[in-house]
Specification:
The chain is 28% helix and 30% strand.
């Protein structure tokens, strides 16, 4: 776009009047510069000013998209030649492309620099620059938007030069079997060679500046001395051979037996370095690798979980993590060394197994600090009738996925909600009003008890808990149970970890477990085993007449339980060295065997009233 003649005359006339009024030529020059820069801005609106070059590529007068395409074409031409490096009498080539992991150019940034040339926003500076661009070229170097990842390039060079620049090899203990004899020998060290990269960046930048690749860049090669020499390993050779004399020996697991040969044991032995020098040791990872195939029928890998939230307190997607079981190589190593030094006895060793904890992944899990197991509680419900098992499964499903905010008190009763048939609960026999009758939710105390144990294992403050009125076999050991029967009694605890807690449940055979996930804060938990005292013999058997059974048929719903008092101490030590010590005391009254005996309809009941609802409900 250009100015019309009247506008041009008006600008010049105004400038001449000011010049005459001030009496100097400076205003005249400024006015002419301003006019010319204003004219240039109008002419190249949305385009790069003239005489702007990126390296040797003229992008003046182009729109940003046109300039970017021209630069990409120029780079494609440059990338046609690979990077070449010479080391001694060898040469390697590394192909280049726009997607190279170690060398590339961000053409959008180069175009942005080109567009901003003469448009910095500084009026005087831009006016002078635009005047300059009418007559002189301005070069923008490719360096201004070059992406050079030196470490990635060095790695590529090392990979391609490995065939003719062998690395240094330390002396090693080598296991050999000859004439049915297995012994250790020493494989001598070997010197190596390595590329020296001191001047690589400067030499490569020169080619980048010229945007011309292909010229070989010489790189010096140096000698590398091994760290361990044969003379260093000589004192360990005799010790290693003496360790081999402990084989063969037997190991067992799950009732099966295997024999560890000298060759197998030898694969576990290695020289390791420490601050005190070289030492002989057993490598736990090798032990685990060697023993795992034998116990493959019990070993399983841990499977990570996934958490995605619907909102701050609701889980949208949750994939439960699965705990793994693996060979404990560290423990096996310690057992072997103790056995050899006389600190342990026996020639047959149990293969130690350990639980391998998975992770919960996903951005929500990371944001909430839900990353590791902080506590696990378990209970056994063997012998439970069908409906009780169904109720336990229902309760486990409702607790599963519970999110507890930092500082929040968790209520088990509130979490499981309404207990009726509409909400998926099943009736189970309880003793009430002098006869047996079905009541929804029988077995729910298995949930309360297991949550109680999980909260204790996590080191959380228990804010409400009541034991059963008498000892129930499902909740042994005595003193570690918790009864729930809405609205109270309830099992409540406080999340004082400073992070969110996620609860997951797992049913396996006759066992139920709850796992608390969160962030460990360094607290430690010590729980003593419950001590049982004040034993009181149970009263005589009680017969309750019922029309639910055929006349004369007897059914015993509860075994006799002696009365007792159970106590255990619960000590939590926090990272600040603050401690909280609580003694949980449970008093159980004696309970006689209760049996129902069928009577004909219309027969008046002769037994006394027995009310075992609420905390006395044998669920």
């Amino acid at each position: 776009m250009t100015f019309s003649l009247p506008i041009l005359k008006g600008v010049l006339k105004t400038t001449l009047i000011l010049s005459a009024a001030i009496g100097g030529a400076i205003v005249l020059v400024i006015g002419i510069v301003a006019f010319l820069s204003f004219n240039l801005e109008e002419t190249y609106n949305g385009r790069i000013f003239p005489h702007v070059l990126v390296q040797d590529v003229d992008v003046g007068g182009l729109t940003p998209s046109q300039a970017e395409q021209r630069l990409d074409d120029r780079l494609a031409k440059a990338y046609a030649e690979p990077l070449r490096f010479s080391m001694e009498r060898n040469t390697i080539e590394i192909p280049l492309s726009a997607s190279s992991s170690f060398l590339g150019f961000e053409t959008p940034r180069l175009v942005e620099y080109a567009m901003q040339t003469g448009r910095s926003g500084h009026v005087v500076r831009d006016a002078v620059k635009q005047l300059e661009l009418r007559f002189l070229k301005t070069h923008i170097p490719f360096f201004s938007a070059e992406r050079f990842e030196s470490d990635a390039l060095k790695q590529a060079i090392l990979e391609r030069s490995a065939s003719f620049l062998p690395p240094a090899q330390d002396a090693t203990l080598e296991l050999q079997t000859k004439d049915e004899q297995t012994t250790f020998s020493i494989k001598p060290e070997q010197a190596g060679k390595e590329v020296r990269f001191e001047n690589l960046d400067a030499l490569l930048h020169q080619q980048i500046a010229e945007l011309s690749f292909g010229k070989s860049i010489p790189l010096p090669v140096g000698q590398v001395t091994p760290q361990w020499k044969a003379t260093d390993l000589a004192p360990l050779q005799e010790q290693a051979n003496s360790w081999l004399q402990h084989a063969p020996f037997d190991v067992t697991a799950e009732g099966k037996r295997w024999t560890v040969s000298k060759a197998m044991l030898g694969a576990w032995i290695a020289a390791t370095s420490s601050d005190t020098g070289l030492n002989l040791d057993l490598v736990p990872s090798r032990i685990k690798e060697g023993l795992t195939p034998w116990v493959s029928f019990v070993v399983r890998p841990a499977k990570d979980g996934y958490l995605e939230l619907e909102n701050a307190t609701s889980v949208k997607k949750f994939v439960a993590p699965e705990e793994g079981i693996g060979v404990d190589g560290e423990k096996m190593r310690a057992t072997l060394l103790d056995t050899w030094t006389g600190n342990a006895s026996g020639t047959t060793l149990e293969i130690p197994l350990k639980h391998e904890e998975p992770l919960i992944k996903g951005p929500d899990a990371e944001n909430l600090g839900i990353q590791e197991v902080i506590g696990v509680g378990t209970s056994n419900f063997a012998g439970s009738p069908t409906n009780r098992r169904k109720n336990i499964a229902r309760g486990a499903a409702l607790i599963h996925g519970a999110l507890i905010a930092p500082g929040e008190e968790f209520s088990t009763v509130a979490r499981v909600g309404e207990i009726d048939g509409v909400h998926g609960w099943f009736p189970e026999l309880v003793i009430k009003d002098n006869k047996t009758q079905k009541e929804f939710g029988g077995g729910l105390c298995q949930i309360g008890t297991t949550v109680f144990r999980s909260a204790l294992a996590s080191g959380l403050p228990i804010t409400e808990r009541r034991n059963h009125s008498y000892r129930v076999r499902y909740y042994e050991p005595a003193g570690t149970d918790a009864t729930i029967y809405g609205p109270h009694p309830d099992l409540r605890f406080l999340n004082d970890t400073g992070h969110w807690i996620l609860i997951t449940s797992r049913l396996s055979g006759d066992y139920i477990s709850f796992t608390f996930w969160g962030t460990k804060d360094g607290r430690t938990v010590v729980m003593t085993k419950p001590t049982v005292s004040h034993i009181v013999a149970p009263p005589p058997k009680k017969l309750i007449e019922t029309t639910d059974l055929k006349p004369g048929v007897k059914s015993c719903s509860e075994q006799a339980h002696a009365g007792a008092t159970a106590r255990f101490d619960y000590l939590v030590t926090y990272p600040t060295n603050e401690t909280k010590n609580v003694t949980f005391t449970s008093i159980y009254r004696p309970w006689g065997e209760v049996c129902m005996i069928g009577v004909a309809p219309g027969t008046p009941f002769t037994t006394s009233t027995v009310d075992e609802t609420g905390p006395n409900n044998p669920n």
